[in-house]
Amino acid sequence: MQKTALIIIDMQVGMTWSGAAKRNNHQAEHAIASLLAQWRAQGAPVIHVRHMSRTPGSPFWPGQPGAEFQPALSPLASEHVVEKNVPDAFISTGLERWLHTRGIAEVLIVGVSTNHSVEATARTAGNLGFKTFVAEDGCYAYAQTDFDGVHRSPQEVHAMALSNLHGEYATVIKSQDAVSQLLFK
């Protein structure tokens, strides 16, 4: 039986430069690193996604230090890398074809930010028919002002994004449950 693919989204150096105090879940990188180590130990598929900006001067512009993967979460030569230009890792990247070619029907998504790239990718994965999971402790969000002008804390933004996904597009779980339920099933 094919194991669940771990999809790590946008864990790039530029994500560490600003806003650390304005985000939730400061243990997300630890949870992601733990999942990555366990997926690697089992020889399960790992996909690293990075955002390559189309905006000159962006920290995520190709060739800029901010576009590089965080050293602790860098891909091995044997792991698949997807470069995207929009929040959704499936748009114009070949990710869907890569998964189907390998018979992968389940994905576990982690990374940043919960309400942008994680949510967009999870929605598409679910819509494409992949059994989709999001590790709530393996992603984080930033404070944001909503459409009505109300300031929302990073935890509120994170919780709402997970709520948008759970039961409709994905199953939201804790990383420790992902290991027992998905990796060792």
Automatic annotation (TrEMBL):
Residues 4-176 form the Isochorismatase-like domain. The keyword Transcription does not apply. The keyword Repressor does not apply. InterPro entries: Isochorismatase-like_dom (IPR000868), Isochorismatase-like_hydrls (IPR050272), Isochorismatase-like_sf (IPR036380). GO terms for molecular function: hydrolase activity. Keywords: Hydrolase. PANTHER family: ISOCHORISMATASE HYDROLASE (PTHR43540:SF1), PEROXYUREIDOACRYLATE/UREIDOACRYLATE AMIDOHYDROLASE-RELATED (PTHR43540). This is Isochorismatase family protein. It comes from Massilia eburnea. The lineage of its organism: Bacteria, Pseudomonadati, Pseudomonadota, Betaproteobacteria, Burkholderiales.
